[in-house]
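I hope you will forgive my troubling you with a question about protein structure. I should value your view on which stretches of the chain appear to form regular backbone elements. Here, with my thanks, is the record as I have it:
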Amino acid sequence: MKKITLFLLFLFSLHFFAQKKINLPQLGKDDIKKVVAALSTEEKVSLLMGLGLGNFKNPPAGEKTVIIPGAASRTFAVPGLGITPAVFADGPAGLRIQSQRDNEKQSYYCTAFPTATALASSWNSELVGSVGRAMGNEALEYGCDVLLAPGMNIQRNPLCGRNFEYFTEDPLLSGKLAAALVKGIQENGVGACIKHFAANNQETNRHNFDPLEVGTGWHRETGNPVINAVISQRALREIYLRGFEIAVKESHPITLMSSYNRLNGFYTSENKDLLTTILRKEWGFDGIISSDWRAGSDATAQMTSGNDLLMPGCYQRDALLSALKNKTLDIKVIDSNLERILSFVMKTPRFKSYPFSSKPDLSQHTIIARQSAVESMVLLKNSNSTLPMKGVKRVALFGKTSYRFITGGTGSGEVNYSHAVSPREGLIDGGYRVVKPLEEVYEHFIDTVLSNSKQENKKYLVDFHPELALSKEFIARQEGLSDIALITIGRNSGEGWDRKEKDDYVLSEAELSLIRNVSEVYHAAKKRVVVILNIGGVVEVASWRNDPDAIILAWQTGQEGGGALTDILKGDENPSGKLAVTFPFAYSDVPSAKMFPGEPKENPVNAFYNDGIYVGYRYYNSFHIKTGYEFGYGMSYTNFLYSDLKLSDTTFNDSIE
């Protein structure tokens, strides 16, 4: 009898728990508040933070920390309540995931598009929208739910190492182009994440940690202060928030990322005025706010400020559980954040069971990448109609980046593409002969740089290596073998550090000598010289621009940059780009030069924005400061003449003709 009773109790228990499981609310079918109420405290805290590789020492049973290799992070899942994970992946110039996976033959390459600074020079929101659609398609088909793009901080100073990820010095143009990119991305059903909100205008001391071991996700504290951007309310509203406001209102991004830095004393991810009062209440943002990776110092303050998701997460778990236990964090705050997170999850492709194909249309995206590269390039100089090249068959290619074109910057802006077209390859494909002895010298130089390095990752080694010095006698021998000389000057930079004025903003002595000597030799033979700037940010031009006959600003225009450059050199395409950033006459003319990166100079604590609203062209125009090339500058192969322009009135009142 006892055995029968125990058996009946066992059957009842099974029925009870089965019935309980069946009756659990399900996300998408039941009210979100019911789903939140059904979560345990531990599950609630887990859903507030990411679950990335190396950032969760003891994941719950059955939880895979990585869904898409190479993705930045993902959110927690609660299958019993129908809560699926959402995968977040970089970045602003194209999707960044691992191209190769263990035990798989298929490659997962993505398309490297022009950087944001390059795209901004197109001034073409339709073009930027097409780039967004292509990026979003790759994110969708490769199984990602959110693309961490676009970056849209203002280019306040040319030395910011991450300027290539940002559009411009102008908030209106930044907002309009960001809105176009967001709309394009989100047409695919994946989310865009505009960043970094706000005033992340430098990389020096933007956070106080360094990678402990690259690739692990674990970090060590450096003891450096986190930079505090001290900005007036007028400048903050008119310059540093305005672009974000435009993008939020016009494109309705699903997510937004708060920044690392402090703003007027407070971490942005802990700033309720910024995240709740301005972003949500004033602008009507209804998505989720994610922190930057390991941003802020107080998880409780982040929650109460409205920063919903902590990335990459997990290390704040104990702090939040403790805060809930000792009542320093109200569970109602947590529940409110969770409702937004679950609303976001319901919009993701993974929640909607989209059948990820892992086969985006890379061929079509290559066409878009090439056209966007063409429209991004700016013709800065063209004396005596040097371009397009006429009667040219043999080309002498000087400069290491003529052979290893820089597609984009380092860090979150990297893209794992299959192949990048160099200027050399583009010219050969275009029917030109590249001078062989010169090519062999550079190939040997590049091979030597790579083989002599003990670094494991050699992807950017050549980019940061000093330029090869060539004698005038050697240059003269190349002149006899060629019809024209092309000199490519390359620059790269990346997340986590700012550029230096010497030998970075200003060209190195080796680069200046190369331009000077090649120009002298070729001009003596009545042959032309073209300089190509393969750069991510502004460089000094005034001291050397008189030497060559033509200058093309090729920017970092992605994997198709070399082919697009050839299209312009040949005249198959007309250069139409216009500068979205000012090229100062000298770095000392930059209004923030004396204040950058902050005070004290060696290890800054505060960045005082004493330049106020006078950023970029607002300063140069207002105070009549001479520039190297002004905002909006750009030549073409056609000359235009404007005459008899008249205004309908001397005062602007709503409209003017």
Confidence is low (pLDDT under 50) at residues 4-20, 53-62, 212-218.
